[in-house]
Amino acid sequence: MTDPRFGAGDLGPGVATPGPSSFPASSSYAARPGLAQNAPSSSAAASRDVSSVDVLRPPAEIAAVAAEVFGERLALAGEFAQLLATEGVVRGLVGPRETPRIWDRHLVNCAVMAELFPNGASVVDVGSGAGLPGIVLAVARPDLGITLVEPLARRTAFLSEVVDELRLDNVTVVRGRAEEVLGEVGEADVVTARAVAALDKLAGWCLPLARVGGRLLALKGASAEEEIQEHRAAIERIGGGGLEIRLCGVGLIEPPATVVEVVKVRDAAAGRAAGSGKRSAARRAGGGRGKTRRG
Question: Care to name a GO molecular-function term for this sequence (predicted)?
Answer without folding.
Answer: methyltransferase activity
